[in-house]
Amino acid sequence: MVETVTLSDGHTMPVIGLGVYLNDECAEACRVALQNGYRMIDGARYYENEAQVGVGVGKSGVKREDVFITSKVYHPDFTYDGTTAALKESIANLGSSYYDLYLTHSATGGKDARLAAYRALLDGKANGMIKSVGVSNYSAKHIEEIREAGLDIPVVNQIEASISTNGSQTIARKFKSSPVTSAYSPLVCGALDNPVIQELSTKYSKDPAQILVRFVPLPKSSHPGRIISNGQVFGWEIEPTDMAKLDALDRGKDGAVTWNPVDVD
To answer: Which of 99, 112, 43 is nearest to 68 (CA)?
Structure first.
């Protein structure tokens, strides 16, 4: 049974997925993931592997309607027409008639550009090309400008979140009905050797990576063994006192390991 979260538009999203960044030949990784219980694949136009995602889904034997697939439009395409064209090309690449979730990849480009891109995605949803619309690498101020424009609030904000940087809490405090946080880069460099992670790994008889994924579930890997292991994070819980230990490792922006452009104007 795949654990899911219900988005504000009524659609459900699996709580764990496979990220395919820096995986130019990701079809095999997607096949392995889906055949071992994953039901979400997180991609983007910038990754240049949308077609490979489609191939992997097709080879997995899992029905398309049972797989939650995400992609993102990159900021050079942040005009209404540019985003519309990008979305149509993404659908052609995937070999499907729709995406379950489509995001603006970052807040880069300025207010007018990102609002134009966001409006294009909302219209893409109205035309049946997208089921849900979200954003990525947005701070609370970027989401607020969407509200001020009178547009639907995004159902997802995908940001970097791990034991070392957990920015989702700031946005959750800002919005009572905030976007669901989809977190990337949970397997931060060096974290596997952290004494707290090692302690909890021993306590729960789990790999260190499984502790990190249970805390923030959107790992990426091209190694079949690690893909399978990273997905085995259900049927057990991290106790509240131990979650507090993990929360205490948060270093805010200083803990980021990727570009993390949430503070752009």
So the answer is: 99
CA–CA separation, 67 and 100 (whole Å): 8
Residue from 13, 142, 154 nearest 70 by CA? 13
Residue 134 is inside which H or E element, if any?
strand 130-136
Catalytic site residue from 47, 74, 102, 184: 47
According to DSSP, residue 8 is labeled: T
CA–CA gap between residue 38 and residue 20 (Å, rounded): 13
Q: Does the active-site annotation cover 47?
A: yes
pTM for the predicted model, two decimal places: 0.80
Q: Which residues contact 86 (CB under 8 A, 6 or more apart)?
A: 45, 73, 74, 77
Instruction: Give the CA-trace dihedral at 45, 84, 136, 96, to 10 degrees.
Output: -60
Closest C-alpha to 70, from 146, 11, 138, 28 = 11
Measured CA to CA, the distance from residue 258 to residue 265 in angstroms comes to 19
The pLDDT tens digits for 171-209 are: 444 444 457 766 665 555 556 778 888 999 899 898 887
* Amino acid making up residue 236: W
Q: Which two tokens stand for residue 62?
A: 């899992």
